Structure formats: structure tokens, C-alpha cells
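Training component of the fellowship. As part of building independent skills, the fellow (R.M.) carried out the full modelling exercise for a liganded target. The chosen ligand was farnesyl diphosphate. The inputs are recorded below so that the supervisory panel can assess the work.
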Amino acid sequence: MQTASANIPNHVAIIMDGNGRWAKQRGLPRLEGHRRGVETVRAIIDAARELGIRYLTLYALSTENLQRPPDEVSALMGLLEHFLRRETKVLIKNRVRLRTIGHIEALPAGPCRELQHAIEATRLFTDWNLVLALNYGSRTELVDAARAYAAAVAAGREQPGDASWSTFSRYLYTADIPDPDLLIRTSGETRLSNFLLMQCAYAEMIFSPLLWPDFSKAELAAAVEEYQRRERRFGLTGEQLKTGAAPRPPADTP
Ligand code: FPP
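Fellow's submitted model of the complex:
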């Protein structure tokens, strides 16, 4: 890969979309699309590390995805469990820390157990981070954070008068995860679909027309190159950034 090593995004978040359409185009069952999607997941985890991306967040299952037909949900859970069984040793070998965001306790016992095992086995690694968003929704995350914040106020641990983004964002699931620098969505759809809405406030966005099973290391490298060509202004002017006359990013981002 020829990507310049300077200005690599620290955190890339990906909405992996298009498994179903990939299968349909080939006259295959949707599950086959998800199976191929898992192969892409493996390749992209490796590619991210090779490129120097320290945080990779994958939107693997939204809260809404759990409402899909039971057969599809159960097949996705099976794939996740199988993936974790096979991949945890690879994560350990490559010193990648696995974390999750979302209500994983509502997932079936099999994948939940494998997740807990992988999280525990990798918790001391710091250089590389894989975050799986599972049964995740940004609005639920915000409501959970508001509840936890209100409880902290009631217990006297927070003063509402001191509330700021940097104090409140400590109650999000992503409290100790930096904001994404780059958000990629595959399949040509141009929506955020309830994914990291607050955290992506200043993320650069790239919408790839490729369906997720067709996404590759080369496509990730190309997205990083496009990111490197963009000027991130964080609401300031290009001139301010050039002369270093203003702080960056703004104080309101953690
Ligand atoms: C979107 O395709 C993809 C999903 C809802 C699930 C993504 C899950 C995986 C890639 C596999 C499991 C994950 C891991 C980490 C092992 P879609 O079904 O919405 O596609 P469509 O929009 O074309 O129907």
C-alpha cells in the first residue's frame, strides 16, 4: 500500500452496508452476503492496522437490525459467534483490544460469552482498538448517557451548572474512545442510520458505492488518501488554520 504515513486518521468508523444486495445480485440467499461480509471484516481489520489506524469501529448490528426476520438475526448471531471463536487468537497475536458499544447483554448467550471472553483477553492492549457496535443506536446511547448523568447529579457527583460537552460525553458508551476522524459507509446509501451521531460531529465522511462484501484493503487505503486531501476546519477558516491563529479542535470537542 502506497498511502502516505502522515495524517493517518486515528479513528475510522464504518457502516458496513450492502450484504443483502450483494447476495441478491447473485441470486444467493442473504446469509451468503453476510458470510462474505465477515470475510471483508477480517480483511479490513488487518488493513486498518497495516495503515496505522489505531481505532476501527464497525457498525455490525443496529438496534433496528434486531427486528429483522428471526432466521436472519439468528444467522447473524451465529456468524458473530463463529467469527469471535476464530478471530480472538488473531486479535491477541496482533495485540488488538476488542471493545463493544451497544446493549450486548440482550444478545443470545453464545455470542455474548465469546464477546466477554475476547474483551477480557485483549483488555490490556493499547495500540490497536477494534470497536464492534452491536445492538447499538445513537439515540439510545444519548438517553442512557442522560440517565447516568442525571443519577450522578442526584448523587452530588456532577454539578449541572458545570455541564459541558467534555463533562457530559464521559457518560457516552465511547467515553474513553476518541471521536472518529473518518466515517465510511458502503453500498451507495448516504445516511448515518443512528450511528455515532454526536461523535461524528467533525468526522470527514466518505460514501463508497461498493457493497460491503466487495470493499477491500485497496478501497480503505483509497478512502484514507481522500481523507488526507481534505482540509478539516472544525468550523474555523482555512486562513486561521494556516496561520495557527486559532485553537483546534474547538474546546467543545473532547
Ligand atoms: C448490512 O447489510 C449489514 C448488516 C446488517 C450486518 C453486518 C454484519 C456483518 C458484516 C457480519 C457480522 C459482523 C461481524 C463483526 C462478524 P444489509 O443486510 O443491510 O444489506 P442490504 O442493505 O443490501 O440488504
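The panel noted the following from the submitted structure. Residues 11-242 form a domain with the Undecaprenyl pyrophosphate synthetase fold (CATH 3.40.1180.10). The mean pLDDT is 94.
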